[in-house]
Amino acid sequence: MEFYKNIAVIVAHPDDEVLWCGGMILLHPECNWFVACLCRKNDPDRAPKFQRTLKELGAQGIMGNLDDGPEQKPLDIKEVQDAILDLLPKSNFDLMITHSPYGEYTRHLRHEEIGSAVIALWNGQKIETKELWTFAYEDGNKKYSPKAIRGASIQQMLPKNIWEEKYRLITEVYGFEKTGFEAKTTPKSEAFWKFENPEDARNWLERNSMLHNATPP
After folding, report:
1. CATH architecture of 6-207
2. Taking all residues of the chain, what is their mean pLDDT, rounded to a whole number?
3. Distances (CA, A) of 198 to 4, 26, 92, 122, 206
4. What is the full DSSP assignment across 120-165?
5. Residue 214 pLDDT more than 80?
6. N or C, which end of the chain has less CB nearby within 10 Å?
7. Which among 23, 69, 22 is positioned nearest to 50, based on CA atoms?
8. What is the pTM of this model?
9. Distance from C-alpha of 207 to C-alpha of 190, rounded to nearest angstrom
């Protein structure tokens, strides 16, 4: 990570930053991490836990209040894009990390919408980053807990102490039950699709637009 000094992580929910890339954050405290969480700003339970998690990760961050109702009504992509632009600092990043437009499990629309919106913003030159990584996980259409996709551009098996700290953040700081989805999911290996220019990300998205699980860029 020596080439990445300023890194933005753009996620839907407080806990996504830990589940899908918490190990990467913990492994690289030398980087300047900024987490933009688009939902749950007014959640009296999750919002303060997000702030505590940021402190323990040594990261900065901000929350928004994008609709996150249980019915998962689709949002207009412009609304999602505007929410992202409202939260991100007006600065250039060396790296942005966000959801896959295909999600990490079956399924959550907000994850998919945010991934697509970030790629569109990058292509429209509304955000600036040298590279974009999207999370690379799949659950076999609910057959098993989300796991790193084999063949993803970047795969990082987490050292035992790093995974244990990640698990502690999920179970003790966020307070999820050890028998619940989040704790059972907490990946021991993290994976990402890597894009060095917006055209490659757009082409990958268009090529896989009819598929649920992405093929390699």
Report:
1. 3-Layer(aba) Sandwich (3.40)
2. 95
3. 18, 27, 15, 6, 12
4. HHHHTTSS-EEEEEEE-EE-TTTTSS-EEPTT-SEEEEPPHHHHHH
5. no
6. N
7. 22
8. 0.95
9. 24
